């Protein structure tokens, strides 16, 4: 019987490193979510639903509508940017969730079950990666802060709070919210760039000779 060829050392080391990272991610999530069933944490979890796609889409649409009705161009631009960033972030995170699955920390803690892999699923407890709350909260907050720089800090702080609660409530692993936040940042940057293209061919004029 022929023995299997062992994987190249670099690949083997990469796999071991990835395994250690995942183990640390799981351990951190379990440790941080130890109080998930306490009333205070449950109250925070309910409050963090301001970061759900339903709430953020409603907020963004209302901001856009009020800006248009009041003829406040800045407010309308803010609402439009929030809506565009949120929609793109939602599309990306949903695509990833439908591609891969990962059970949530509360499933591991309550049922002793942990699984990850492909394909994705439409079952909520198996949709831990990435965090949709993180993706949309960061995207919308970044868009709002871009339109109103004076409130950028407050918007970012609010988004950070929503992101943190997802780990404390046992809904996501740290890696899930990190991935979601990166999706949100990228989605806002792409949507803003698409709606505000940089003029091309307008370089500095050459001085006349």
From TrEMBL:
Keywords: Cell membrane, Hydrolase, Membrane, Transmembrane, Transmembrane helix. It is found in: Cell membrane. It comes from the Bacteria. Gene3D superfamilies: Phosphatidic acid phosphatase type 2/haloperoxidase. It is a multi-pass membrane protein. SUPFAM superfamilies: Acid phosphatase/Vanadium-dependent haloperoxidase. Residues 80-192 form the Phosphatidic acid phosphatase type 2/haloperoxidase domain. Pfam families: PAP2 (PF01569). This is Phosphatase PAP2 family protein.
């Amino acid at each position: 019987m022929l023995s299997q060829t062992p994987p190249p050392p670099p690949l083997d080391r990469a796999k071991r490193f990835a395994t250690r990272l995942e183990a640390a991610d799981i351990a951190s999530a379990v440790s941080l979510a130890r109080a998930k069933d306490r009333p205070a944490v449950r109250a925070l979890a309910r409050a963090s639903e301001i970061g759900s796609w339903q709430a953020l889409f409603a907020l963004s649409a209302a901001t856009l509508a009020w800006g248009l009705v009041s003829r406040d161009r800045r407010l309308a631009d803010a609402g439009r940017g929030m809506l565009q960033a949120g929609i793109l972030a939602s599309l990306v995170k949903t695509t990833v969730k439908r591609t891969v699955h990962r059970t949530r920390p509360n499933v591991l803690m309550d049922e002793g079950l942990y699984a990850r892999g492909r394909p994705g699923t439409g079952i909520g407890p198996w949709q831990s990666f990435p965090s949709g709350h993180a993706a949309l909260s960061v995207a919308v907050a970044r868009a709002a802060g871009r339109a109103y720089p004076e409130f950028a800090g407050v918007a970012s702080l609010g988004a950070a709070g929503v992101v943190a609660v997802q780990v404390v409530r046992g809904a996501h692993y740290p890696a899930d919210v990190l991935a979601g936040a990166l999706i949100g940042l990228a989605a806002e940057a792409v949507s803003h760039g698409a709606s505000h293209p940089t003029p091309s061919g307008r370089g500095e004029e050459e001085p006349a000779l």
